[in-house]
Amino acid sequence: MRRLPLLAAALGTAVLVVTSLFVGGYDLSLRSLLDDPDALNMFLISRVPRTLALVLAAAAMGVCGVIMQMLVQNRFVEPTTTGASEWAALGVLLLAMFAPAAPVLGRMAAASAFAFLGTMVFLGVLRRVRLRSSVVVPLVGIMLGAVVSAVTLYLASGADLLQMLATWRSGGFSSVVRGQYEPLWIVGLIVAGLYLAADRFTIAGLGRDVATGLGLRHERIVLAGVSMVALATGVTTVVVGFIPFLGLVVPNLVSLTRGDDVRANLPWVVLGSVALMTGCDLIGRVVVSPLEIPASVILGAVGATLFIGMILRKRNTLHG
Q1: DSSP secondary-structure letter at 24?
Q2: How many CB atoms lie within 10 A of CB 53?
Q3: Is the domain defined by 54-319 classed in CATH 1.10.3470.10?
Q4: Calpha distance 302→294 (Å, rounded)
Q5: What per-residue confidence (pLDDT) applies to 319?
Q6: Alpha helices (H) along 129-261
Q7: pTM over 0.85, yes/no
Q8: Which of 194, 235, 201 is nearest to 56 (CA)?
Q9: Looking at the predicted structure, is the pLDDT value of residue 281 above 70?
Q10: Cβ distance 88 to 118 under 8 Å?
């Protein structure tokens, strides 16, 4: 009986995912898949890869948000509020400038390395600056990300790569086809690894003294967590672009309703992230059909609204 709500949530998310397979500018139906070879090819080449990319990217960003919040001990952080995504874009841009013929794996490696560097810079700033309010922590990350983004924009304008940079920032799934999304299976493995190590990250989130007292090497756990988050952020940025606020909003909503058991919450975070991302993608495809609004635009508006609401709620709680 305890698993019924989770099964119901999984069923609802599955309905959204299946709906995503049949919504778009090219009209598809079960009958057309059986009778029309062109429709079947469109389904296998475009719709299935697009939906798989959406599911994998959303799950990765949601779980990465949970892990970052544990490691930083702050509920308002995730890759896009620590500047990691902006650093990843800088890495890809520099590679495009100095090694334009680099393969996809090279771009992913550059994005992941710079995302790791940006996260370590963010953690270094937090260790050296005493912040009285937890709300200020994500603002520090956003400001650092804005500085890096400005540098990236300046370099892109000088190298005539603004259009390519805009494509990375779009965070849409319209260009995802078979042969392009497959690297996202890496982030699927990362999600599984983060789930298996959830208890260790929870203990590391209690602080260095507590973790050391329980026999864990705090620095090693933090380094492993940051590395996995950076790799997931880098791969996702290269394949589908930025996905803002997803790892911030969903984990907080799950914690508000279910408490702080990280391992028990992770399946809910995955389902919630996939459902929210799929819903935003469907809205973007339907509102201006047959054109399309990138899912990141819809998600950014929803996520920013919820983010501000959480900040106001935190402020009212502190003053109350």
Answers
A1: S
A2: 23
A3: yes
A4: 13
A5: 57
A6: 136-158, 162-170, 185-196, 198-204, 208-213, 218-240, 246-258
A7: yes
A8: 235
A9: yes
A10: yes
